[in-house]
Amino acid sequence: MTVAAASNFSAAARDIAEQFTLNSGYVVRITTASTGKLYAQITNGAPFDLLLAADAERPSLLEESGAAVPGTRFTYALGELVLWSRQLDDCRGTLDTLGNLHLAIANPDTAPYGAAARDFLRNEGLWKSVRPRLVIGENISQTLHFVVSGNAALGFIARSQLQAPSLPHAACSWPVPGSSHDPIEQQAILLQHGLDNEAASQFLQFLRSDAGRVIIVRHGYRLPELSE
Q1: Cα separation, 174 vs 96, whole angstroms
Q2: What pTM value is reported for the model?
Q3: What is the pLDDT of residues 15-48, one digit of tens each?
Q4: For the structural domain made of 81-175, what CATH number should be given?
């Protein structure tokens, strides 16, 4: 089976897949990209069995269009946004006086974490002033790379990325208030290609199980209520 996973969830998806394979014997392939890019690939016939998106919008659109199986969509994780830098002492304060520094965000048109960053900047009245200094990542993984490499002085990343053992020490890390942007509600859905794939159905069940949810929390996400 093949799982299309949003870039922010790549490490968690691989850990979940590894445990799922140990439990079930099924082999899982993981393909990662921004949610918008995965959505475009699915609508153009990419043979994915499941989508682990970083938003609720694309899974809903796939369900409505018939590209996904109705009634299989659910929220598996709640993401959080962090402003991060390896060279600045004051992440939030620097936004007000960015000057010649560059700010990295994921593409807000295709990456839900980028859209959340744009929402925050607009709500703070900063979008117009920082826009000329933006470095746009294709996805949240590339966005973090821009900040780590020094191509941007600071950037909006996923809180889950702070768990990476290879991440350099942060000079500052500021949690972006969830009230300042739309919720980052990450949803999973079974795609039509995986309708008759028993491994795909079992993977979704494992994602909602206690064992799956433990892994999700370990990677820096909050959990929705199971009733969702």
Answers
A1: 14
A2: 0.88
A3: 999 999 999 999 999 999 999 999 999 999 999 9
A4: 3.40.190.10
